[in-house]
Design brief:
Elements (H helix, E strand, L loop, with lengths): L4 H58 L5 E7 L5 E7 L6 H6 L2 H4 L3 H7 L3 E3 L6 H6 L13 E3 L1 H7 L7 H10 L3 H17 L3 H5 L4 E4 L2 E4 L3 H14 L3 E6 L1 H7 L3 H9 L2 E4 L2 H9 L10 H12 L6 E5 L4 H12 L5 E5 L8 H11 L3 E5 L4 H9 L7 E4 L3 H6 L7 H5 L3 H8 L1 H21 L12
Parallel strand pairs: 3-4, 7-8, 7-12, 9-10, 9-11, 11-12
Antiparallel strand pairs: 1-2, 5-6
Protein name: WecB/TagA/CpsF family glycosyltransferase
Keywords: Glycosyltransferase, Membrane, Transferase, Transmembrane, Transmembrane helix
Pfam family, one: Glyco_tran_WecG
Length: 454
Amino acid sequence: MEFSSSQSEIMGNLFVRLKVSLSRGRLLFTGFLSRLMDLGVSMLLMLTLWPLWLGHFVLAKIKGRTWLVRHEYLGRQARPIHLAEAAPLPDGFLASLLNHPLIAKSPFIWAVWRGDLSLVGPAPLTREAAARLPTRFLRRLDARPGLIHSFFIKSRTNIAFSTEAETAVADVEEAHWKTDLGKAARAVPAALMGTDPEAKADAGPTLAMFGLTMTNLTLDEALDEILATCRAGRKERLAFVNPDCINISLRNPDYRRILEASDHIYPDGIGLQIACKMLRLQMKDNLNGTDLFPALCARINGDDLGIYLLGAAPGVVDAMVENLLEKWPNLRICGYRHGFIKPEELDQVIREINDSGAHMLFVAMGVPRQETWIDTNWSRLEVNMAMGVGGLFDFMSGRIPRAPIWMRELGMEWLYRLIQEPRRLWKRYVIGNVIFLINVVRFGKKGAPRAGKS
């Protein structure tokens, strides 16, 4: 059966209209499910929290204080909304509990019930803060603000490596009831076990654990320090330490001596964050090479600072370089080489690194071999900054995929890696993590014996 051109045009228009109608239907249904989730969860939270609110109300009245204060924020499409939070109470044990930021802002849940907030969305924004934002970030106002937002989860789990504004736009782009439900679930452990951002701001510049002095910085502060070192022409060694590194340092005096001689030791991983919680220390960020390196590449893309990549198996570093230049075409990679170096090749490799003009050397040979290599050859190397980066090259080459963000937010990246390489990593994670926690209790702040001492 053949159709005339006019009939074909009519059929085509009907097909387009049908697609548009189905698309609108899906959006409406998704919106309905999201709103249903908002109502259900907010009702459950209100039923759970009413005793706390009642206690706050009674204590406020006894002290002659206002119970709630209201602040104006911008809702969807920049519509003004007013959110209530509990007013601060005078000093006292009960007051300190009720003044906790998470409890003080819990009346925001009422706004979820009213429809001014969503359960999950970009953080509520004041008019003054919106006026300071570049136009590209105002897309966050296309959606209702959220009681829970990704930046809250990331900042409390020490992986907030993007700005709040960038994360807010991502919340809008990722909005879906399934995604939102996952974020809401991840917010629970982040709220209960994560680090308070306000406490992090007051944290000291160092962390003293296991007899080591670790540099306590945010990712941006660490990048500033690295770049300042290179531009000033100084020479510094940097080491990342995770629970496995701590365990090795407690049984390997040579490795421990190398750590003690490093200019900076960065705390890496959920294990160090748990140790800080146990020892009542405030760790600013989870500083690991896998997150720091791409952020550094973004900073120096098009800069005169150059890098040299040394390590991993043959072919891995080549694939890594291809990926790096595809993402950062103006990144100055001065040289690269796999990590299988014969004794007779050592002089040539060091000469290649020095002649390359690189400012930073990244060595991926595994702990403690990479730190030992840097330490042994440090006096001959002419780079400004050298650091061991473990499995970074495998991740950046694509040989081993990185854990999805939701697992990292839950502090479960170690489990993802264990599933990927169970034979190689079971001892490190299954047994090693238990040994690490024992070492936290055993040594903690008082420290382990110094290198070379029993």
